[in-house]
Structure prediction request, 152 residues.
Amino acid sequence: MALNILGITDAVVSHAMASGRFETVNGHEPKNAPSTGGLTAAVWSERVTPVRSSGLDVLSVLLIFNVRIYASAVQEPADAIDPDMLAAVDDLCAAYTGDFTLGGLVRQVDLLGIHGQPLDIRAGYLQQDGLLYRVLTISLPVIVNDLWEEVA
Prediction:
């Protein structure tokens, strides 16, 4: 079985687009600053790690995505930046919890980190192209069953 990375990435991107909170959603980590004044999002895979599963001769994997939300850090009212971003995070986390298998593409979103990395949100700032952005990054761990066969 091959890793359906495009299908899984599209499912994660689709949830962000369906939320209606973002002006754009990229399926990659951007190399340039967002060109919009509102919220934007980007989705990319960060890590693929084998996990213990059924113990048979096939490996399942933990696939971790970053879902990063960007907003200009120099906008008014400044007190509205984090609440707007956290509302978008709330929508996305509700979507990933509600679509626990991403439409049947994965075994599960590993919400509590049974295989290491739980669903996690980190806040920070990012300087890109001379502009300062407030960012919230969701670490979205998903488990893909029976991906690689062990052959002796």
Notes: The beta strands are 24-26, 40-51, 58-72, 108-109, 120-128, 131-149.
